[in-house]
Amino acid sequence: MLLDFLQAKPSHNMAEINEYVESLKIAYVTVRRDLKGLQNEGLVSLSYGGVKTNEKSDNSTIKHLNRLNLNLKAKLAQKLINQGDVFYLVGAGTTCEEFAKQIKTEVKVITNSWFVYQILLKNSYIIKPILVGDKYREPSGVFFIGSFVEKALEIEPFYKTFVSVTNIDYNGNVYNNNEGESYLEAIILAKAKYKYILADNSKFNSMGYEHFCNIKDVDGIITYRVVEIKPEYLAKVIN
């Protein structure tokens, strides 16, 4: 229903979307979740003040390109891993899962994602997979911030982190679409010595709901191709 409304024209501002939502008495949190899902499927792009619909493409082609993108990005990230590293792999979704599958170096990995943890358990290169969490968010399979997590971050030291994100705008602001998760990511980035962002090219030039850092605050951003970003941030891109 929401997709049909959005595809009626190339773009919609937030006022139009809010009017549509109110007319159907849909909870705004539900719309936020659905918009994020449509963006992950490549059907829409969230941008400043609205939503833009993408051109329809063959579904098998989209899936193939997404898989290629994920593999390339995961292999790029592997170049930043050294034997014996202890690092935090933050976030949910296919990016982090693919990253966990492709680790081919003996390392210790901490994660807040139940699904990533299951993959780490099956990877013989992982010396010790650690799952930390407190409050559980079922749709994404991640644990986010709580008093237990903050204590666990003190007990399990790490010096490197790879963080999956939902959006990066033109000014280099980085987002997650969940408040609890973005708060956790901000804390982990503050504790890590080496900080890397994982983001496929569809995440660029779009805004999310919870801003938690800027590209200037990290050591690098791992992606396949940058769509659009301020020139001064291009030096941060690892591709």
TrEMBL record:
Keyword Repressor: yes
Organism: Spiroplasma mirum ATCC 29335
PROSITE patterns, per the entry: HTH_DEOR_2
InterPro entries reported for this sequence: Carb_Metab_HTH_regulators, DeoR-like_C, DeoR_HTH, NagB/RpiA_transferase-like
Pfam families reported in the protein's UniProt record: DeoRC (PF00455), HTH_DeoR (PF08220)
Molecular function GO terms recorded: DNA-binding transcription factor activity
Boundaries of every HTH deoR-type domain copy: 1-53
Purpose of the protein: Repressor of the lactose catabolism operon. Galactose-6-phosphate is the inducer.
Keywords: Repressor, Transcription, Transcription regulation
Protein name: Lactose phosphotransferase system repressor
